[in-house]
Amino acid sequence: MKSEELFRRASKVLPGGVSSPVRRFDPHPFFAAGASGCMLESVDGERYIDYCLAYGPLILGHAHPRVVEAVNDQIKRGTTYGVPTEGEIELAEAIIERVPCAEMVRFTNSGTEATMAAVRLARAFTGRDRIIKFEGSYHGAHDYVLVRPGSGAATAPDSPGIPVDTVRNTLTVPFNNEEAIVELIEAVDDIACILVEPVMGNIGCIEPENGYLQFLRDITRENDILLIFDEVITGFRLAPGGAQEYYRVEPDLVTLGKIVGGGFPMGALAGRREIMENISPAGNVYQAGTFNGNPVSVTAGLQTLRILDEGMYSDLERKGSMLRAGLRDLLSDMDLEYQVAGPASMFQIYFTGEEVRDYQDAKKSDTGLFMEYFCGLLERGVFIPPSQFECCFISAAHESEHIETTIEAAEDVLSGLKN
Ligand code: PLP
Q1: At which residues is N6-(pyridoxal phosphate)lysine found (predicted)?
Q2: 201 C-beta closer than 6 A to ligand 1
């Protein structure tokens, strides 16, 4: 097996054999040889229906011909300039047209950089230091937010190397719990912002309960606290305007990533003009990057948003419902405890009999059983993220037949499992 051989080689030069923790799974990950549409091919010649989709960016599937063509054209004219381009304005305008709270945009290279800048900006704008985040939410790998995080870090939270003083001002509360926020806001002052993933996509997939996001909007407004939606996953995925359009709640700031770069590295911070104008050089809140707004990512992102305009969302929603209904249907006939979660083109299974509303509930899921389900699917040509604490995605390139094949594979795997 070439993957096994490559993994042995990789382990000598890359910590854990991978470049990002969640990519590692036992006995070893498969190595990619190429991909097209919804199919991912390994160096061993295996082909997988891909629901990991690089953890979210590939809403059009792999190597969409029009994105590839646009990027090729751009690369021939240069890959980065160190001076502004018209493309940056076009992409910023496209974001502002779609995302309700966006009046100005700062491009970054990753979601991590976007949330780091958002927290700094919120602190500067309000003159306060404390931030509230949710247990099990993941906002990237920087110091301010690695407190009770989700994603790969859910299994090893609170990384060493982060000074206690850096996270003293990062307070955490359970998701979908109004009382916890009310109590915290009454008990402490000096809160600059609430940073929230409107759908928790890094602890599986947990939707906000009816009215919860509006509650966050109301309480932040009443207390002059900024509300930041981290839409690195949900941005351009749930709707053109992301979760703020889907759930009709408008935050003060939004962080974007993944889809906004059309499969290339990119992040963005956007929001109300009055706040955004404090970013340097317009204001004095420092944020910078050699590759910020680089023309390759900008081109891919812009092309992706244009293709998405051609009416993809109802079909993504239909395929999401079809897959979730198929999974529920087959699980209802089995002797397994389960929850099938997710809105639109996001989904996940938890192996627990109890409803999953927050991090603590998600942690009760049988993760051993989940890994058996993951391995069983992989053997049958279906690739989902190798962790209970990630979310699965559907792309525009998945056809109904792919979904049907996936449901059949899941039935085959799950009928052999017990919890
Ligand atoms: N915020 C959320 C909600 C994410 O899911 C992620 C990554 O998965 C990030 C921020 C960090 O983005 P990046 O990996 O591009 O740094």
Answers
A1: 258
A2: yes
Distance (Å, whole) CA 118 – CA 194 = 11
Using DSSP's 3-state secondary structure scheme, residue 108 falls into strand
Nearest CA to 243 out of 258, 232, 227, 257 is that of: 232
Q: Is residue 401 predicted with pLDDT exceeding 60? A: yes
Residue with tokens 């806001």: 185
Q: Which residues contact 398 (CB under 8 A, 6 or more apart)?
A: 38, 49, 61, 319
- Dump the DSSP string for 76-107: HT-S--SS--HHHHHHHHHHHHHSTT-SEEEE
Catalytic residues: 138, 230, 258
Whether the CB of 115 sits within 6 Å of ligand 1: yes
Name the residue with the closest Cα to ligand 1, atom 12.
111
pTM of the predicted protein model: 0.97
- Domain map (residue ranges) of the chain: 78-308
> Mind listing the pLDDT tens digit for each residue in 233-247?
999 999 999 999 999
> What CATH number belongs to 78-308?
3.40.640.10
Q: Is the peptide bond before 21 cis (omega within 30 degrees of 0)?
A: no
Q: What are the start-end ranges of the E strands in 277-416?
A: 339-341, 346-350, 382-383, 392-393
pLDDT at 261: 98
Strand partners, 104: 271
Q: How far apart are CA 217 and CA 122, in angstroms?
A: 15
